[in-house]
Structures are given as structure tokens and as C-alpha cells.
Specification:
Structural class: alpha+beta
Largest sheet: 6 strands, antiparallel
Order of helices and strands: EEHEHEEHHEHHHEEHHEEEEEE
Strand content: 5-15%
Helix content: 25-40%
Number of helices: 9
Number of domains: 2
Number of strands: 14
Strand order of the largest sheet: 9-14-10-11-12-13
Shape: elongated
Length: about 375
């Protein structure tokens, strides 16, 4: 097991890095989009940011059945466990100084268990009781079986950020087939890391925040084909209210009754998600079915699988989200990709058509619309 520690956080600081570090997921049967670590993240030492990115990349190579491991997951853990090693220095080779220690697990701290020494003080400096160590807070007993050499210096050191982050990534992946882009699966993996619902919720909150930084870091890609017309048509309606069942080829309309949350679309003129995409496609001369699942299954164009990654998307691509990533019939939402990791979206009742970071959780794939008469794939 690993243990959570309490640590006083230093004031956030901004780091500058000259290179954008890109962590690409390995292409697997489960599929996983490309995740881009920003050039700099406030509060994260540049060497530690590299370690998070490299560990995610290496984990994809070593655990090809583990989809969705990304730098943001490791950063979420690192934030909660040690505040990204706040108050400590990190050398260019990844060594944290002074070492980070959690409280002694001798039963004196409320809520902790007694864990007698397992490492003779090698990692935690205490020959009587164990305590969590390093930026990712491994117990010495866990490190003995899970420790990894992430910087190829022939030593697995929990006080080295390259070693500790790689060990954390592989620990979360386990040995089976998992998809950590699924929020439930990620929560279960985090629960193994630290069996606390509060801990899991806190880490997931940070992961979500870092995911937004990731997709915002993607460079915009020039549109081609029908994409510009689709995007232009949708952008015209920014700020238009969401209406359950609203929208058609001509524009916003009143909707139908009623959304799962109780919105009576008949009282609101606007768009729901598939109404917006139907309208934008019509502006480009393409007729789509009304609901999002049918748009993916029957829409004319090239289907882009989830495994191809976000990095291959072009502005104007329709992006689809499902409850079951293996079953397009469970698609429940659609947006319009506009580049830079963002999409135009009609999210839900009570919101408006807006631009926001593309979702990672539930992303099933995309549809690139093709002119009539062009062979679809």
C-alpha cells in the first residue's frame, strides 16, 4: 500500500521550460488519445513535469493493455501526496533533497495503522517503524516489490522522481486490461493506491484540472474539407440556450419534453448537442440523423477510432462520447472539434452553446464529414 501524508504547500510558482513535452499513449486495442503535457505548470518543478510525462509514456510501453495512463494522473497523485515535492529541491537526475517522509506508522497518529519496519531503515531512516517515502509516498514494503528504475541508473530509489513516478504508473495499471480514461476504472485504481474515498476524490479533482491543461496545450490544426463550414455554422450560435430536443437544419428551435433532469425543451428555443451538429452539418450540405448515436453510425464520412488519438482530429470533426466505449449504440453526446484541444458544445440543460476543452472521459471516436458522393469509411 501507499500512504497519504499531510504537507504544508509552498506558494505556487511558475516555471519556464523551453520544450513542450509530449506523452503519447501507445496504440492499444482499448485505444488512447495523445496527451500533451504543457510546457510549464505552476507549482511543478520542470524535472518533475518531465518525470510525470516520461513515466506515462513508459508505462504505455511496458503495459500495452493499460490505456489512459497519462501525466495528469501521476500529477494528481503527486499533488495530493507531496504537493509536487513542495519545499524540496529536485536534481537534474531526479533526486529529491531533503527526502520526503510521511509520519511514522507506529500507531501514534490518529487514523494510521502500525507498520513495523520492513527495510531496516534503508528508505525511511527508521529501523523500528515504516513510513511512506518519496514524492509519491510509497511504503518501503510496497517499494520492495513495486519499485522501478525510471532513469536507468541501475537503482530503484523511491526518493527519485523518475523512479517513483514510473512505479506509480505501473502500480495503477496493474497486470490486466484496464482503461484509465474511464473515471470509474481510474477511481478503483486510485483506491488500491490509497483506500480512502476522500483521497480518491481529491486526486480525481486534480487529474481533471490537469487534463484541461493537457488538451489546451494541443496546437491548433488547420481545417480542411468541410470542416471550416461546420465550425463557422456552429460558432454563429455561441451563447444560445440548451434545449432538450432543440435545433434542426435551419437553426435553433423549441425542443421536446423532457430531459432526464426534467427540462421541458418545449419552453426553450435553442439546441441540444445533436441538434447543433445536425444544423452545422446541414450548413455544409450534409444531412445527418437527429440523435447522436445515429449520427455516428449512419453519418456520411470517415470514422476515426478512439485509438487514433485526439492529435489526428481536424476542426469540424464531430466527436462522440459513450457509456460503453465498445458499443456505439450507447453514444449519448456529441460535440464539434475546433482545434487546440477544444470543441463547440451544447453540454446540458441550463447551459448555453460554448467552446470548452474536449472531454477525455467517455470519448469513443469521431466522424469526419465528407462531401456527398465521396466514399465513406
Amino acid at each position: 500500500m501507499v500512504a497519504k501524508i499531510a504537507i504544508g504547500l509552498a506558494a505556487p510558482f511558475v516555471v519556464a521550460v523551453a520544450i513542450v513535452f509530449v506523452a503519447l499513449f501507445a496504440a492499444t486495442g482499448l485505444g488512447a488519445p495523445a496527451i500533451v503535457a504543457p510546457a510549464a505548470v505552476s507549482g511543478i518543478d520542470p524535472t518533475l513535469l518531465i518525470a510525470y510525462s516520461q513515466a506515462a509514456t513508459k508505462a504505455a510501453e511496458l503495459r500495452p493493455n493499460c490505456a489512459g495512463m497519462r501525466w495528469s494522473v501521476l500529477a494528481g497523485i503527486g499533488m495530493v501526496e507531496s504537493g509536487h515535492a513542495a519545499g524540496h529541491t529536485i536534481s537534474g537526475t531526479g533526486r529529491v533533497d531533503p527526502p520526503i517522509y510521511g509520519p511514522l506508522l507506529d500507531g501514534s497518529v490518529p487514523g494510521t495503522v502500525r507498520v513495523p519496519d520492513t527495510d531496516r531503515g534503508q528508505y525511511d531512516g527508521n529501523p523500528t517503524w515504516d513510513r511512506a517515502v518519496g514524492p509519491m509516498q510509497f511504503l518501503p514494503g510496497t517499494w520492495a516489490s513495486q519499485g522501478r528504475d525510471g532513469n536507468r541508473d541501475q537503482t530503484a530509489d523511491p526518493h527519485n522522481v523518475f523512479d517513483a513516478t514510473l512505479a506509480s504508473a505501473l502500480y495503477l495499471c496493474g497486470d490486466g486490461e484496464v482503461d484509465l480514461l474511464d473515471s470509474g476504472t481510474l477511481a478503483a485504481a486510485l483506491r488500491r493506491y490509497n483506500d480512502s474515498a476522500v483521497y480518491v476524490a481529491e486526486v480525481l479533482g486534480w487529474v481533471a484540472a490537469y487534463d484541461e491543461l493537457s488538451i489546451a496545450a494541443l496546437d491548433p490544426i488547420p481545417a480542411s474539407g468541410l470542416g471550416p463550414r461546420v465550425v463557422t455554422a456552429a460558432m454563429r450560435w455561441l451563447g444560445t440556450p440548451y434545449s432538450w430536443g432543440g435545433g434542426n437544419a435551419a437553426g435553433p428551435t423549441s425542443g421536446v419534453c423532457c430531459s432526464p433532469g426534467g427540462q421541458d425543451g418545449r419552453t426553450v428555443v435553442g439546441f441540444d448537442c445533436s441538434g447543433l451538429t445536425l444544423h452545422a452539418a446541414a450548413a455544409a450540405g450534409i444531412a445527418l440523423p437527429r440523435v447522436s448515436s445515429a449520427q455516428y453510425l449512419a453519418g456520411p464520412g470517415t470514422r476515426i477510432p478512439r485509438g487514433a488519438g485526439i492529435g489526428v482530429l481536424l476542426p469540424g470533426d464531430l466527436v462522440f462520447f459513450a457509456f460503453d466505449l465498445e458499443n456505439p449504440a450507447t453514444i449519448h453526446h456529441v460535440g464539434i472539434y475546433i482545434g487546440g484541444g477544444n470543441m463547440i458544445n451544447a453540454p446540458r440543460p441550463g447551459t448555453v452553446v460554448r467552446v470548452e476543452p474536449m472531454y477525455l472521459d467517455g470519448y469513443l471516436g469521431a466522424l469526419r464529414l465528407l462531401p456527398i458522393g465521396t466514399a465513406a469509411r
